[in-house]
Amino acid sequence: MPAIWIPKRLVEVNLVNTAAESAKSFVRHCELEYEGRIHTAASEILASGCRIVMLTGPSASGKTTTANKIAAALRARGCPSQVVSLDNFYKNLDEYPRLPDGTKDYENITALDLDDIHHCLSELLETGETELPIFDFCTEMRKQETEHLSLPGGICVIEGIHALNPQMVEGLPRDSVYNIYAGLREEYSHKGQRVIPTRDIRLARRMMRDCRFRGHSLEKTIGMWESVCAGEDRFIKVFKSEADLLLDTSFSYEICLLADFVAPLAGSLPDDHPQCEKLNMLAGHFALVDRIPEEMVPENSMLREFLG
Q1: DSSP secondary-structure letter at 95?
Q2: Rounded to whole angstroms, how far apart are CA atoms 39 and 23?
Q3: What's 244-281 look like in SS3?
Q4: Distance between CA atoms of residues 41 and 157, nearest Å
């Protein structure tokens, strides 16, 4: 039976600012809530009797860290578990699908080797072992060597943007697969008006990560965002109804962290820049939020995926 989607919560920024006055307990409460969701997910997976978990979520939803935390929770309960990224299964450069303008369409499911995915998942179910391909993102080619995966009696967590597409598990027994959709469910309002929707939180997460770890400019990240969201609507959110579990990856205190990064960006782009209005609006909305220092974030927090 498909999971029931969790309605988004609309929280007043002033309530968050009040909670931020007791920052240490606020952070701890939010982290414990998220960890509770992880352990609930592990319990549901074990109760289902499945051997394969397919986990997806939109950009900057925290799906990679969430997948690893679920695997760790399963191992803590005595069940061998490992995360496998669908990125391993990209085809070679000359086999990528193309967009109408000739550029590579990385977000199309046909960029992945579906036959190889089916083969590996079938082997895992039958024998508990398989050979995973290794994709080199520098050359955009598969390496000659493979990675041996051995999970006898265990659970493999597969994460990636296409994980809930039914084509991924075609031919597998339905009761052997458990589907999880990870996404933010908390938004923020000011004087009764929504000012920080989940997409803006994810954009702020991505801006911080891209700036700190990927060498991307703010202009590049914001400029790509519209096409990223369009890709999510086409390839990710359409399969939300396939989920057995909908896992909330919101942290109420997070906007207090992001504010320190986003609010000072107001006016950093020229007035005639195509991304100026979006950045100034984003900065203005985050300026409404009181700050919590980054050092208060636990080292094992999911948010470290974006903060470092």
Answers
A1: G
A2: 24
A3: CEEEECCCCCHHHHHHHHHHHHCCCCCCCCCCHHHHHH
A4: 12
- Of 216, 88, 256, nearest to 162 by C-alpha is 88
Identify which of 254, 89, 249, 95 has the alpha carbon closest to the alpha carbon of residue 161.
89
The whole-angstrom separation of Cα 200 and Cα 198 is 5
| Longest Cα–Cα distance in the chain | 61
Helices (H), 79-213: 114-127, 198-213
Q: Which pTM was predicted? A: 0.93
The neighbouring-strand residues paired with 157 are 53, 83
> Token digits for 304?
């470290």
Q: Report how far apart, in Å, the C-alpha atoms of 50 and of each of 75, 125, 253 are.
A: 15, 10, 34
Partners of 158 in the β-ladder: 54, 84
Residues linked to residue 82 through DSSP beta bridges, in sequence order: 156
Q: Are 225 and 231 in contact (CB under 8 A)?
A: no
pLDDT per residue as tens, the chain (308 positions): 556 566 789 999 999 999 999 999 999 999 999 999 999 999 999 999 999 999 999 999 999 999 999 999 999 999 999 999 999 999 988 887 787 887 777 778 888 999 999 999 999 999 999 999 999 988 888 999 999 999 999 999 999 999 999 999 999 999 999 999 999 999 999 999 999 999 999 999 999 999 888 888 888 899 889 988 988 998 899 999 999 999 999 999 999 999 999 999 999 999 999 999 999 999 999 999 999 999 999 999 999 999 98
